Amino acid sequence: MFKVTILKLKDVIKIVIGIVILIFLVTIISKIIKKDDIENKENNVIQSGLLQCFKTSIPVAESINNPEKGISKENTNSLLQSILVSQISTIKGIDEKSSSQKMAEEEKTENLENTEETNGETQEETGEIKLAKEGLTTEVVTPNPIAESYNVTYNNVKIKNQTDYELTNEILTPDITIENKNIVIFHTHSCESYTSSPAYTYTPTGNFRTTDLNFTVTRVGTELETYLKQYGYNVIHNTDYHDYPSYNGSYTKSLQTVEKILQTTSSDIIIDLHRDAIGSRSDYAPTVKIGDEEAAQIMFVIGTNAGGLYHPNWQQNLKFAIKIQEKAEEMYPGLFKPIMLTTSRYNQHTGKFANIMEVGATGNTLEQCLTSMKYLSKIMAEVIK
């Protein structure tokens, strides 16, 4: 006989539900196991690849999974993340550096273009002050020269003595000490000008004269002032007219100017800057070539009391001129013409080292005279310590 089991519908439903749940659980567990295997394999590949890429540039990567290095497997992901951040920062830095280099190159190109644009411009236009150099070849290159005239020499300094005084060694030896570093520059003949040139073109309002002080000896005084200040001297430069509207009485007016300056500023060095007044030779341009530059020659004019006017300082004035010119002949021979010693006083009683300096003549250009100031200032800086 057969045994027959009778199942109730309710029990069948329970069994079916149990089987479904079991199948679902088995499926989920299988997927989880499979996913873990895949992730482990992927992690191994990533780790191996990163180690290969980074271990030469980041030595610490070599220690991953190495117990001896003290880095555990649990810290691997954290370490890899740090490495990736580091590498990304490095790549960013390289990119920023490349950008900076590009900007620097563009700036360099722009500066070069600006430099090329300013080539040929004057010092006045660029605002650049170039001090004189030493050791340059010097040669007198005066066109249509006038023969030098002198009758006294002291070492390498030539003097044209127009007085009856006998210039003894005691008078000529420049044994002076210059303690006051204030320098006064003024112009008794403010309107004296030069031959017009492409760089400095002007319309004369007289025989090599103009009231436009940008083209006269006054402008030369400004150049000397600028250079002397570069050497640390205190310079008072007066640019008043003294020969305009009237030429007569110029020395009386300039004396008043100097005396007024000395009321507030003590100074021993007082320079009355002129242009050589030779009018019969408009082509006369006393010139010296220093290196590659042409400069107008300079001449000291030193007054005395031989004309009867009170002038206790004339020998001190002469010693100063000799001291400057000695150094000039040593550094830039030919920059100065022979010193002219005269019977007139020329307001030089106002200071121990007062003098007239005549820069160039009517045939010189203004730029030649400006160049002279570069070298004159260097000489003075060597003497006035």
Describe this structure in words.
The structure is a single chain. The model is unreliable at 53-80, 82-98 and 108-122 (pLDDT under 50). The chain starts with 8 loop residues before the first helix and ends with a helix. Helix 5 (217-230) runs parallel beside helix 8 and helix 7 (314-331) packs across helix 8. It is built from 8 helices and 11 strands. The protein folds into 2 domains: 9-79, no CATH class; 135-383, 3-Layer(aba) Sandwich (Aminopeptidase), CATH 3.40.630.40. An 8-stranded mixed β-sheet has the order 2-3-10-9-11-6-4-5, sandwiched between helices. A 3-stranded antiparallel β-sheet has the order 1-7-8. The radius of gyration is 45 Å and the shape is rod-shaped. By secondary structure, it is of the alpha/beta class. The protein has helices at 9-54, 76-118, 123-126, 169-172, 217-230, 250-264, 314-331, 366-383, and strands at residues 138-140, 152-154, 157-161, 182-186, 234-237, 269-274, 287-290, 293-296, 298-302, 339-341, 353-359. Helix content is 42%, strand content 13%. Helix 7 (314-331) links the parallel strand 9 (298-302) and strand 10 (339-341).
